[in-house]
Design goal:
With 432 residues, the chain is an alpha/beta fold. 36% of the residues lie in helices and 20% in strands. The chain folds into two domains: 175 residues, MOFRL domain (glycerate kinase, domain 1); 226 residues, Glycerate kinase, MOFRL-like N-terminal domain (Rossmann fold, 3-Layer(aba) Sandwich), CATH 3.40.50.10180. The protein has 15 helices and 15 strands. A six-stranded parallel β-sheet has the order 6-5-4-7-8-9. Strands 10-11-15-12-13-14 form a six-stranded mixed β-sheet, with helices on both faces. The chain has a three-stranded antiparallel β-sheet with strand order 1-2-3. Helix 7 crosses helix 9.
């Protein structure tokens, strides 16, 4: 059998960016929706379930997330004038051209009053829906922060304070959303409960490890497996002493979910698979490490650096030219006062670990185009970046959680602007 001959690798930086762009293309939210939702003029097919459109007096679109505008645009393209109206909450700048659906720009990751207003409007739409109404809910990453609906006596200011503490603690998105669900009248299946007995189709673009339906966007249309005790345990784990009143959520099996269909239309796995195809086309022996990477960003960076060093030293687990891919979402425990995000911090930590090791290029970026509170999606570096920037003292930037300003100085930031999608992060390690 003839062996595959790897193509010569000449520009790993350019190739890493091409691989990332392939992942972005595969996560396009409009195409994701249209792969799962079909309409022939009479029958709406959602996945394999069919709905006669004449059964419904009204079709309305509601939802939230960084990709929700693009997802709503796809539904508008499909159903056109049959849409009576609707409301979605989007992150500032993440809008799309919509004709029949109102889109409200809101604060993210810290919620604001605009988000509260939008969440209340969607709750009203759901509450007023009856058995001859169809609600199509578009949910993507960011939906939790974009739909604050605090239950009194909690105020928006209380929720903003708690959100900041959770984001700085290093808590995972599963843990953060466990807390959010039990402080909200919208999340944790409560939107579906308000809409019952209307029919609800939820189109969900996953941005969480394992594609857990009750975690994505805090699961507004899904029975909640987490409990008040779980929420309390999260605050205790991270030493957060803020006093809050938790409320229980509807659980799986509740009749409120009898008329709900939840469909995952896109995920990190699809993006990573497309990245792997692109890497192979460029001549790299390619391995997907995992699409479920989580944990402290710097620790994850050390593991990726160790794999690259092993490839250079022994040709294991695959020979160069090699591409190691991973997806998922790590966390950063903030101890410094700098500016950055988990992807930029990953690349800086990896670059320090790989300094002088050999020909290795590392890229990490968020598919939504935003990494932390910055205008960058992520960063790119190679094993000579730290040496070339020796006067900057890369380790000091890392200690101060100031990866953004380091990569700004060495021209390593990746800036895509809002991408319209959100399926977590893509990490690319190229070894020549």
């Amino acid at each position: 059998m003839r062996k595959h001959a790897a193509l010569p690798v000449t520009n790993p930086r350019k190739h890493a960016l091409q691989i990332f762009r392939a992942a972005l293309a595969a996560a396009d939210p409009q195409e994701a929706v249209l792969r799962h939702l079909k309409f022939d003029g009479r029958i709406l097919t959602a996945a394999r379930r069919k709905y006669a459109i004449k059964r419904f007096d009204r079709v309305q679109i509601i939802g939230a997330g960084k990709a929700s505008a693009a997802m709503a645009r796809a539904v508008e393209r499909l159903l056109g004038r049959r849409i009576s109206g609707g409301w979605i909450n989007v992150k500032d700048g993440h809008t799309a051209h919509l004709r029949r659906i109102h889109q409200q720009e809101c604060g993210h990751p810290v919620p604001d009053e605009r988000g509260v207003e939008g969440a209340r409007r969607m709750e009203q739409i759901a509450r007023e829906a009856g058995p001859r109404d169809l609600l199509i809910s578009v949910i993507s990453g960011g939906a939790s922060a974009l739909t604050p609906a605090p239950i009194p006596p909690m105020t928006l200011a209380d929720k903003q304070e708690l959100t900041k503490k959770l984001l700085a603690s290093g808590a995972t998105i599963h843990e953060i959303n466990t807390v959010r669900k039990h402080l909200s009248s919208f999340k944790g299946g409560q939107l579906a409960k308000l809409a019952y007995p209307a029919t609800t189709i939820a189109l969900i673009l996953s941005d969480v490890i394992g594609d857990d339906l009750d975690v994505i966007g805090s699961g507004p249309t899904v029975g909640d497996r987490a409990t008040v005790d779980d929420a309390r345990a999260v605050l205790s784990k991270y030493g957060i002493t803020q006093s809050v009143d938790f409320h229980e959520t509807p659980k799986p099996g509740d009749p409120a979910f009898d008329n709900v269909q939840n469909i995952i239309v896109g995920s990190n796995e699809q993006a990573i698979d497309a990245a792997a195809r692109q890497a192979k086309a460029l001549g790299y022996r390619t391995m997907v490490l995992s699409t479920r990477i989580e944990g402290e960003t710097r620790d994850v960076a050390q593991v990726h650096a160790a794999i690259a060093k092993e490839i250079l030293a022994t040709g294991r687990p695959l020979r160069a030219p090699a591409c190691v891919l991973s997806g998922g979402e790590t966390t950063v425990t903030i101890r410094g006062t700098g500016l950055g995000g988990r992807n930029q911090e990953f690349v800086l930590a990896a670059a320090i670990a790989l300094d002088g090791a050999g020909d290795v290029t590392v890229l990490s970026a968020g598919t939504d185009g935003t990494d932390g509170p910055t205008d960058a999606a992520g960063a790119i570096a190679d094993s000579s970046t730290v040496t070339r920037a020796k006067p900057l003292n890369a380790a000091a930037f890392l200690t101060n959680n100031d990866s953004y300003h380091f990569f700004e100085k060495v021209e390593g930031l990746i800036k895509t602007g809002p991408t319209g999608t959100n399926v977590m992060d893509v990490r690319v390690v190229l070894v020549e």
